[in-house]
Structures are given as C-alpha cells and as structure tokens.
Design brief:
This protein is α+β, with helices and mostly antiparallel strands. 40% of the residues lie in helices and 35% in strands. It contains 4 helices and 8 strands. An 8-stranded antiparallel sheet has the order 1-2-3-4-5-6-7-8, with helices on both faces. A hairpin with a 2-residue loop joins strand 6 and strand 7 (139-144). Mean pLDDT is 82; it is low at 23-32.
C-alpha cells in the first residue's frame, strides 16, 4: 500500500514537472514574440487605428470581379491618409475577409479570415480559419494561425502568403484612392486576360 502511494506521488510529481515545463515554454515563447519592439510597435499602431476609426472618412467600392458572388472594399482615411482597408469576398457557401492596416503607406498588419457556411453565406457558420501577419517594411515578422500557433516565417508558404497580401493591398490602395465618382473597381487580373 505504501509502495503504491509512493509510486502515485512520484507519478504526480512527474506530471506536475512536465506541465510546469510546458507552461514555462509557452510563456517564454510568447514573451519572446511580444518582446520584439517591432511587434509591440505594430500592436500600438493597430490599437490607435482601431480607436480612430469612428472619426475616419469612409470610402466604399464595389469589387464585383474579385470573387464569384462579388466583393466590397471599405477604406478608412484619417484626413488624406489611408489607415485601414476591409475587404469582404462572397462565394457560394462561404465568405472571406481581408483587413489591411497601413502606416506611412506601408502595410504593417494583415488579417485573413475564411468562413464556411451551411447552405449560403447567410446560413450558420460551420468553419472559420484566420491568419494574422505582422510586417515590417514588407518583410514578415510573425505569422499566426487560428489557434494562436506561430507559423514559420521563412518558408515558401509564408513567402507566397506575403506576396499575395502585398499585391492585393496595392490593388486595393489604388481602388480606394482613385479619384472621381467611380464606386467600383475592376480586377486588373481580369483586364490583363
């Protein structure tokens, strides 16, 4: 009986030690990522942008050719300075959103969300995936998935995601800042075909 109690206590100690080690590893990793002054700066810019949105001038553009069921761009300007672009893409059984945050005409944060719905985009949400990218001078600093897991920033997938995001951001900046009464934008990829 004593032997069983000792073994049980030893097992509990091992599990406690492993759990404490795991918690420490997670905390150290999160502190290291958040300890980067560039990430801290990006989070401050993001918070300031979100806080200022109610005061911003809003420009909406129809992006009919950007998705099977259409898309809409909403751009937020602080004076003449573009601060945020929010794009919704509609498809048969899903919807995707991209958010681009800009500082000094440079994209510093991108959020990409894909949602799958039952029946239609107005049905019940059945699956959601989100990716967040932190950028500094168009270089990826941090890439985070839905579960908060950091993805490798030095990979072909990361390079492809950043390239796509920056190309689309440039297209949407041109659309949002176009002069005149146009309320829609043409997808340059469709014009080139």
């Amino acid at each position: 009986l004593r032997r069983m109690r000792r073994e049980r206590r030893a097992g509990i100690r091992r599990i406690s030690f492993l759990a404490a080690g795991l918690v420490c590893a997670v905390v150290v990793r999160a502190a290291a990522a958040d300890g980067d002054p560039r990430i801290t700066r990006i989070k401050a810019w993001y918070a300031a942008t979100e806080k200022g949105l109610p005061k911003n001038r809003v420009v909406r553009r129809d992006l009919a050719e950007f998705a099977p069921e259409g898309a809409v761009l909403t751009a937020y300007f602080a004076g003449d300075t573009l601060r945020k672009m929010f794009v919704i893409y509609y498809a048969d059984a899903g919807r995707a959103t991209d958010e681009y945050y800009l500082h000094h005409d440079s994209v510093y944060f991108v959020s990409h969300i894909v949602g799958r719905y039952s029946a239609s985009v107005y049905g019940r949400l059945i699956h959601r995936v989100q990716y967040r990218m932190y950028l500094d001078n168009e270089s990826l600093l941090r890439w985070v998935d839905t579960a908060g897991k950091e993805l490798p920033v030095k990979s072909q997938a990361a390079d492809s995601a950043v390239e796509r995001s920056l190309v689309m951001a440039r297209i949407f900046v041109a659309c949002a800042t176009q002069g005149g009464p146009e309320e829609s934008c043409i997808n340059p990829e469709r014009v080139a075909k």
